[in-house]
Amino acid sequence: MSTVATQERQSYLDAPYGLASWLLTKDHKRIAMLYLISITLFFAVGGMFAAGIRMELLTPQGDLWTSDMYNKLFTLHGVVMIFFFLIPSIPATLGNFLLPIMIGAKDLAFPRINLLSWYIYVLGATITLAAVFNGGLDTGWTFYTPYSSVASNTSVSTAAIGVFVTGFSSILTGLNFIVTVHRMRAPGMTWFRMPLFVWAQYATSLVMILGTPVVAITVLLVFAERALHLGFFDPTRGGDPVLFQHLFWFYSHPAVYIMILPGMGVMSELVAAVSRKQVFGYGFVAFSSLAIAILGFLVWGHHLFVSSQSIYAGLVFSIITMLVAVPSAVKTFNWTATMFKGSVTWESPTFWVIGFMGLFTIGGLTGLFLATMGLDIHLTDSYFVVAHFHYIMVGGAIMAYMGGLHFWWPKMTGKMYSESGAKASAILVFLGFNLTFFPQFILGYMGMPRRYHAYPPEWQVLNVASTLGASVLAVGYLLPAFYFTWSLVKGAAAPANPWGAKGLEWTVPSPPPTFNFDEDPIVNEPAYNYKPAREVHVA
Amino acid sequence: MATEMDLLYLFIAAISAFFVVLVAALVVIFTIKFRRRTPDEVGADIHGSLVLELTWTFIPFVLAMVMFVWGADLFFRLSKPPADAMDMYVVGKQWMWKVQHPTGVREINEMHVPIGRNVRIFLGSEDVIHDYSIPAFRVKMDAVPGEITTLWFQATVPGTYHLLCMEYCGTKHSGMIGSVIAMEPQAYEAWLSGGASTASPAVEGEKTFNEYACVTCHKNDGTGRGPSLAGVYGSTVALADGRSVVADDNYIHESVMNPQAKIVKGFGPPSIMPPFQGQLSEEKILQLIAYIKTLKPASGAPEAAKKG
Predict the structure, then answer these.
(1) What is the CATH number of the domain that holds B167?
(2) pTM metric for this prediction
(3) CB contact under 8 A, A241 and B15
(4) pLDDT tens by residue, A372-416
(5) Quick one: which of A351, A396, B41, B306 has the most CB atoms within 10 Å?
């Protein structure tokens, strides 16, 4: 045993052992695993809230929960899923694990700050959970004033503090990534040799550090109005309720890009790897991430077309929102073109890629309906909006997250999982997702409002279909819990490069050693340099 | 307008369906046609194409701009109520809709309207933000506390339609649901005369104007301690700080609630008027504004001078 141990390099999982070594680790890979465990727990919690919502909506009468309980369920579903699952999901797990390795670094620029981010996240989550157990929260995840600041008698202040604290975790992660990309690239790893996942993380980090302080201030103002009775948003104290919406969406619309941009980055990696081909139009894909990050800051007013905002302001927000469609379309076409004349594998990551392409395309295009001012009058605040953002956040971001998790699982854990289980999960998620959310587009066009505990009976059939779909979706998401756990116990050992993919992360062992590289890598080729064999012979 | 909105919806839906089918078909075809045949196989060495990039930048851009222009144009037309509209007053309150007709008849969670007539609604909120929505007519507007918003529609087919609150407003949000009953004009008149007879909103507003002693300062001949309100609605008012504002519903609403916000030139600062925040219900303010709208200039001269 001892001879084997000395012959093999120790992986980051092996040395040292013990709980303390994990809770005090400065290794970006171990911190990524800590995040993976925490956000998986919150994904499960948020999913249970969703199950509560869908069960209630099986029947038109509000008969399963009380109205207050239902309002708390959809509020907590949103708060947990957005602040504690989606926003940290890809950056804090896959990003944390892969970003340093992909650019040839030993760790992030500030390993201690990286650990601090996780502790801040845990603290923020704990405070928010305290609000859940102490009366809950019924404002909707959007905290609209003056309902949140004056009328609601739930634990708004506690939850606001929880969200405020969690924001710092996001800011520190963003800061860490930006400095790492600028300062820690290996020799030869020029900006335009970086994997597109790194570009996407970089763009996301910019949004995190520029946007998050604004939402932190905004929830703090809500807290000040509730607790100290200062007048910011309450008109009876001289405040402006719509000002809250401007401040809130100034962060929360870009937050959508915090969720989807990393997903786009994952998709660029996966499409290249499953096709074994250079990403088509590398420069366009890289810069479209930055374009989305920048434009994303200038579109918040499209949430306010019918909230008494000036129609001229509405015009500006509408046209800039339309412009976001362009870089998103550019990415989609480039991914599609990457598969052309590729060598497309039928292994499980491809299934998640195809699922993402279908769902993200629908999600993106339905955004155009809502950006069109005249049409938004009818569609805003209806189930059309619910369907649209679930197609982006679940169909896009979570599909990409799941795809990424499957693609890099062998690298992260050193174990292979069941291929057939993974394919079944991808198919069930795709079918279940569409059955859950496509009917909601129709319900929205028929006029069904969001956040309704009870609804007119003519909308029942589509709601039953949606709940049925949610059950399939739940099975699809539960499957990986089994085969991933099984892989940890009984899975075959993963080779360094099970997919035959390009990228520095595939040059190191699975799982990687603590400092990633035994020798500092030197990069002398572009990303995704898959050359057909014959050209190698020619050279 | 409802028909045009559906047409715009179908237009975008058709474009979306085209692109979804295109992307899905290509992805599936490529996955099958270019499937990996040997374990070591790699894809072709293709890096990109500027022509293709420009094409698929340009086409989505043009299509998005068409949607923008059409949507913005429709929104503008929907934002401007026609001049001949009949005025109704609606206040949202946790968790009900309070409606008052031009004749003064009131209803709660029901709203009778005549077909074939443009109806303009002045919308207020007593507490939190609500949203007045009639999906069948494709109209929706937030009711924002501290503000008056407007919307308009024309019912064309008699029937009963959902009136829904579409901005989350607390416990019974989903119970804040009523009906719009569209009737033939004669039936509507008959219904109106059958209702409990109350004074019109403007007459009730005049009562409030006297009751709260507004009249002691705001004399119509301009000799009071406050500015005359005769002819003020819709006019441009010069303010003490050198700015000027158009005296619309929101300006009057704000001036009643918080008189220090915009002080008329020659009457401060500070304004000597007490704030009526918390004193007047949203309905009373809507009535007060309806009354102020009826105040014509004291003599024809200033009006004529303005026009000249």
Answers:
(1) 2.60.40.420
(2) 0.91
(3) no
(4) 999 999 999 999 999 999 999 999 999 999 999 999 999 999 999
(5) A396
Q: What are the strands of the beta sheet with B130-134, ordered from one edge? A: B110-114, B177-183, B159-165, B130-134, B139-143
What's the pLDDT tens digit per position in A204-259?
A: 999 999 999 999 999 999 999 999 999 999 998 889 999 999 999 999 999 999 99
Per CB-CB distance under 8 Å, the chain A contacts of B65 are 319, 322
Chain A hits for B27, CB-CB cut-off 8 Å, are 336, 339, 354, 357-358
The domain tally of chain A equals 1
Q: Which residue has the higher pLDDT, B23 or B230?
A: B23
* Containing structural domain, residue B298: 201-307
C-alpha distance from B30 to closest chain A C-alpha (Å): 6
Count CB neighbours of A428 within 10 A. 18
**Alpha carbon of A368: minimum distance to chain B alpha carbons (Å):** 8
Which distant-in-sequence residues (6+ apart) come within 8 Å of B171 by Cβ? A67, A68, A71, A138, B94, B95
Task: Find the CATH number of the domain harbouring B211.
Answer: 1.10.760.10
CA–CA separation, A303 and A316 (whole Å)? 13
Q: What domain count does chain B have? A: 2
The amino acid present at A432, given as its one-letter code, is: G
Interface pTM (ipTM) of the complex?
Answer: 0.91
Which long-range CB contacts under 8 A does A127-132 form with residues at least 24 apart? A127/A158, A127/A159, A127/A161, A127/A162, A127/A165, A128/A79, A128/A80, A128/A83, A128/A84, A128/A158, A128/A159, A128/A162, A128/A163, A128/A166, A129/A162, A130/A155, A130/A158, A130/A162, A131/A155, A131/A156, A131/A158, A131/A159, A131/A162, A132/A76
